[in-house]
Here is the input.
Amino acid sequence: MPEFTRDELRDIQGTILSGFAHLPYASYLFLQIKDAAKVKPWLEKITPQITTGEPWDKLPDGLRQKPPVTLNIGFTYAGFEALRLPEETLLSFAREFQKGVAARSKTLGDTGASAPEHWEMGGPGTEAIHIILVLNAANEAALEAFREQQRQLLQVSQGGLIEVNAQHGHRPPSEKEAFGFLDGISQPKIQRTLGYPEPNQWVIRTGEFILGYLNEYKEYPLSPGIAAKNDPDNLLPPFPENAIPDCKDFGRHGSYLVYRKLAQDVPGFWNYLADNARRGPDGSPDTQDMVYLAAKCMGRWPSGAPLVLAPEKDDPALGRDRGQNNQFTYQPTDLEGLACPVGSHVRRCNPRDSRINEEPAESLTSVNRHRIIRRAVSFGADLFPREDVERGKIPLDLKDDHQERGLHFFAINASIGRQFEMIQSTWSNARSFNGLFDNKDPIIGDNDGSSHMTLQRDPIRQQLNHVPRFVTVRGGGYFFLPSITALRFLGSRL
Ligand code: N7H
Here is the structure.
């Protein structure tokens, strides 16, 4: 299989292929279409501004000329309805996308405080969202200027498009999330991107993340189509292998984007671990044991070192070693979970070669049908410096300051149902998982105090009981990230 050509990369939105590590500040502008007819001039102006996957030019010193800001765009199903895409196209989007994230609350375990009725955006009691603009910049000032520029640009729609919500966040230089752990380590490599022409155990077929290419079933992912007669200027490509004659492929080079605003209960997390930790001579919780238990829940140490490779204590050099910190499988050394618990967050979300009743290679094949590309950015002020966790400095008796903090979590995938939703529901929220029972993902599971977290141990396992919910959903949306060609097509129809 060849790598993507420059023209193909120019057609794919950049956020699918890059986390823009050099641009840690982000804003998300949520827009509503009031009058589709007035959106045309805006769409025509914004389309050439969308950051694509085109490789960055090399400077004379050999370094890449990275963009100072990036812009990406996604549409909800309601957004495509508002833009009056033909019915045949609307109905050819994936079912879960048609329903939207709030309607999927049962599947996702969005209950209690996480129920869509309580969401601050994207729920039934808030303004309808049609479009998300994803803005990235190098610092706060550059982000603010870029945001203002985008808000000005909205004016060309003369009220046809309004902003209904805005969210902001940034990745701290330590790359630690609010519980104090290094994040953003394990990402699937996409076949056809630079250096990965062929799929293998670690390189996932393109069609898991970009429509129009074969996926891990060696099939083409479901892609929205449009009758050829509805594309009179012949802008859109045919379906792969011209599989549906008389129909054009609206989805090619596009993908689905899941957004979840996830609040993290930092005092609740550390106080729970304090309650369960060994006591020191003075009767107070042993902070080293608290970090140990937290790492067992996570599957990695605060530095990012995977428990499989560093079972007893953190190994900061390994944690930071981008070449090594994701080089592991669970077989043959840790099938039983003695190093990395079977129910830990990372092992549930990507069991790699460890699914029970499957040979390692078989397990990798089936697990690789449920991978996601994650993009996450923190919001909210720290209760205590998150970098302190790696140093074992965790304050005891943390008081809840009632300030929200957490992650703007994004998942990119070709099938929301088979990828993001499957991980959240069948792996993280399931009481029975890979031989466990009455356990749920201790980090993102829909825990309600009735389930446990089992730490496999020889001779006797340890059990953390009555795990509460540490992550609450505060809002969300299911979006489609069209190709640049599809964006031009959308503009041409208005
Ligand atoms: Fe998770 N965390 O910071 O505590 N996650 N996650 N996640 N997560 C991972 O390997 C975290 C969430 C995955 O390939 C790490 O990059 C938090 C959702 C997957 O081995 C850490 C939240 C879903 C992986 C966290 C959160 C996932 C992963 C280790 C919510 C999907 C890769 C760093 C607030 C439904 C597993 C790394 C692999 C890793 C954290 C949410 C999925 C530290 C705080 C909702 C697939």
Notes: The two ends are 37 Å apart (CA to CA). The pocket of delta-meso nitroheme is lined by residues 177, 179, 181, 183-186, 262, 264, 298, 300, 345-346, 349-350, 372, 374, 406-407, 409, 420, 423-424, 443-444, 471 (CB under 6 Å). The chain has 15 helices and 14 strands. The mean pLDDT is 97.
